Amino acid sequence: MIGEMDAHSVAGYFRNKSILITGSTGFLGKVLVEKILRVQPDVKKLFLLIRAPDVESAKIRIQTEVTGREIFRVLKENHGAGFDNFIEEKICPLVGNIMKENFGLDNSQLKEFSKDIDIIINGAATTNFFERYDVFIACRVFTYSLQFSNE
Predict the structure, then answer these.
(1) Which residues are CB-contacts of 26 (< 8 A; sequence separation ≥ 6)?
(2) Which residues contact 138 (CB under 8 A, 6 or more apart)?
(3) CA–CA separation, 48 vs 29, rounded Å?
(4) Main role (predicted)?
(5) What are the strands, taking DSSP E only, across the chain?
(6) How many structural domains is the chain composed of?
(7) pTM of the predicted model as reported, rounded to 2 decimal places
(8) Residue 6 or 138, more confident
(9) What are phi and psi for residue 5, nearest 5 degrees?
C-alpha cells in the first residue's frame, strides 16, 4: 500500500512538469523515459540531452535508441496511430554533452531552455570503461554547475 501511494505521489508530482533527463539513450534512461510517459502522460515535456551534431540527428537518435525500442511497445499499443504525435509533443531533444561545461550550450540556449525546466534527472554516465576515475565520478555523481536563472 505505501509503495503504491509513493508511486502515485511521484506520478502526480510529474504532472505538468518539464523534466531534463541526461543519459536517456542508456538502458536505465530509456526505461525512465518510457515509465514517465506511461504513468504520467500529462507530463509537460521531457527534454532529452543527446550527443549529436544537430537537432535532426538528435531526433533520429531518440527514435532509434529510445522510442523505437521494444520497451515502448505498450505505449505504442495504447496510443495506436497517435503514438508519433504523442512522442513529438512530449519529447524535445536538447543537443549537448554532459562532459562539457553547461552541457556545451551557449548562454542564450541555456537561458532559453532553463525557463522551462522544473526537474533535472541525471542518468548519464561515461561509456568509456577505461576512463580516469575522477572523470567517471564527476559525470556520474556530482551535481552540475549549470546555473538556471529566470531573470
Answers:
(1) 123, 124, 125
(2) none
(3) 10
(4) Catalyzes the reduction of fatty acyl-CoA to fatty alcohols.
(5) 18-22, 45-50, 91-95, 119-122
(6) 1
(7) 0.79
(8) 6
(9) -60, -40
